[in-house]
Write a structure and sequence with these properties.
The protein is of the alpha/beta class and 436 residues long. The protein has one domain: TIM Barrel, CATH 3.20.20.140. The protein is built from 18 helices and eight strands. The protein binds zinc ion.
Length: 436
Amino acid sequence: MGEVAIPPKIQLRSVVKTSNAILTPDKPTTSPKEPPRHTTMHNHNTPPPDDSTTFTRTQPHPAVKTSKNMLSPDNLITLPKAHLHLHFTGSLDLATLAELAQSAHDKAAAELINDGALTVPATVKGWFRFQRTYDLARRVVCTEAAMRRVVQQAARNDAAEGVRRLEIQIDPTSYAPHVGGIIPALEIVLDEAKAAAHATGIQVAVIVAASRMRHPMEARTLARLASKYAGQGSGEVCGFGLSNDEWAGASAEWEGAFRIARAAGLPGVPHGGELRGADHVRQVVTALHPRRIGHGIRAAEDPRLVDELVASQVAFEVCPTSNVQLGIYPRLNAVPLQALLSAGAQIALGADDPLLFHARLNAQYQAAQQDMGCNLAQLAELAASSIRVSFAPDSDKARWLSEVAFWRTAQLASSQSSPPVIARSVSDEAIQKSNY
Ligand SMILES: [Zn+2]
């Protein structure tokens, strides 16, 4: 099986990603062992094509600025949706990072806010430098108050984008040293998730994710801990993941942990199919039996595998800006979203780590529209799909799906009676608003 949801710690625009949970240096995310087979991909160690559409902080991808029937960011805010792939520290925005750095009296971390500090050209090789940068950002989440602040802000930011249900992912072992162990670390997050749900009006559930960089026995411990808090609602653990470097370990090593989680009613949501290709997706699915796969986008390299996943009702958590920022695809229009949609895949778009990728959830929908050719009906279907494959109670899903249907009808009617909408690029805006 594969990996699971990983909290990458990344360097912007460069290439590497690691989990929130990891403290040890990761190896490069792409390895010569299994070069990407998709013609539009490039290795992390290979500079992306000299194309102006490649993401950069100083030169955001030039998404289509105007187009008939293109939805504006405001339209996307009104689209009800679920956010199912968001890592804990990676969810931070720059303002909150600055606030936490100040509280922690961490001048070094505060320097990350300065222009350019988190920016590294995608052509620069330097995994360890990036790793250090990410660790620097994470170290401001070093108190109970800081952990609560992360949850609060993630809920607020998602509520502001029309999210009805957030399933935020965390490896509590990364924060345990600051609060006295993994039990209080998880309970703090669950407690705050419930409070944030009450404050924002959205559901905030938690996915506990083990790390591929740690011993599989530790994953079993986490699975047992997660099982004690299993549930579908806010402040409960709704799934079990596996994150970090997809090249670390054989997926079968985590089979026991996922079996423990399933026995407690916790569905699996391991990462796979971003850093590695379709063969690895197959390994992840075979060993871990996930309900959703974190990313899984490179399953598109094997259409027969995609058909099998669709038939097995394994959903995909697709994170386009993550894929581009990590160098998996050279640009957004190379992300094979349409191939998955054509195969009937259930897809939930996700931001992954907006702190490092400079784009939150609605930027993914905007990119799907502007760069991946999704029409209004497909955007509505993506939102509906995200709700269907969430682990929310069925009654809530039904209500939100009705809201999506209403939105679709209203938008279609509007598009037929109104002049073309001038759309702004959410991706670009997200970058600008975050002071990148
Ligand atoms: Zn992830």
